[in-house]
Specification:
Layout (H helix, E strand, L loop, with lengths): L7 E7 L20 E6 L2 E5 L5 H10 L4 E5 L5 H4 L14 E6 L8 H8 L15 E6 L5 E5 L2 E8 L5 E8 L2 E6 L11 H7 L4 E5 L4 H4 L10 H11 L3 E5 L7 H14 L3 E3 L5 E3 L5 E3 L6
Parallel strand pairs: 3-4, 4-5, 5-6, 10-11, 11-12, 12-13
Antiparallel strand pairs: 1-2, 1-14, 2-3, 7-8, 8-9, 9-10, 14-15
Helix pairs in contact: 4-6
Amino acid sequence: MRVKPSSFDVIVWGARGTLPGSGPAQTAYGTETCCVEMRIDGHRLVFDAGTGIVPLGRLLAAECVPSVDLFFSHVHYDHIMGFPFFMPLYRPGTRISVSLGHMLDHQPAGELIADFMRAPFLPIGPKVFSADIDYRTFRPGDVLRPGPGIRIGTARLNHPNGAVGYRVEHAGRVVSYVTDTEHVPGQTDEAVLSLFRDADLVFYDTSYTEAEMAKFKNYGHSSWQEGVRLAKLAGVRQLVLFHHANMRDDEALAQIEAEAQAMFPGAVAGYTGMTFSLAPALAETRVRSGG
């Protein structure tokens, strides 16, 4: 009997941070905030629910996908603002797990979502959802297993109000999602390094340049130079520059990408529609408009 090859595909639905892109100078890399989908042997894993989750939700609903596992790095607005508009939440019979673990006081996931979706900020609350939703609260350091052969390591990140990084492992391949973390100059964050170690693909918070770090100290974000340094140290194959600063236009992002690639050829600036396939070999498919 022939064994069906394992699949592991990664799609970027939003790569910006803090705010969606605005105006014609912020379109080449997409206007959507953080959302990354991983398709692993039929399982649909989604990381963060920025505005990028809205078009993803339309696709999942059109495909009648029966189940989705959603993981939050944390719930600052740019990472959760698309959640109430995620169409599978309104489809009866759809199974959705919602996992978060960044809160220092471990506030239950369901309570936190309800607190976000309340008057006078929204006219609807979670009770309007029709899907079968399983809210899950974990602690950083826990290992999550959303499906057969899928292992997700977690670690706490250095970010105001907390954040969690993820390391997704399947069939010998590794994709890490590490956004919203601030490094200490001259020091190596061992938790982040463990998430990076020998990964095929890493998404990393590269909001700033090293020259900007002093100005934005304690904002909870890192630099593309630190991402490159960690990628080299950890033996990463491909680094996606992620969580682009809201003031950065397309020209500035292209310049950062070029500088990063000069130091680490595996670096690339994330954009909406960027797709990777890790089976049988890592390959990037560019679909950016005009790119």
